[in-house]
Amino acid sequence: MATLLKELEAVEHLHDQFGFTYADIAAAVNTRESSLHRWRSGDGAPPTPVYLARLAALEAFVAELSRTFRTPEEASSWMNERVPAFGNRSAREMILAGHVDRVTGVLYAINAAVSL
Question: How far apart, in whole angstroms, are the C-alpha atoms of residue 18 and residue 51?
Answer without folding.
Answer: 21
